[in-house]
Amino acid sequence: MKFLKKIQVLLLALLVCGMSYAQDKENKAAVQDTTKADVIVQPSFRGGISALYQYISDNFAYPEQAAKRSVNGTMEVEFTVERSGDITNVGILQGLDFSVDDEILRLLKAMPRWIPATKNGVPVRYKLSMPLNIRVSRNKKSSLALSDFYDN
Question: The pTM is what?
Answer without folding.
Answer: 0.67
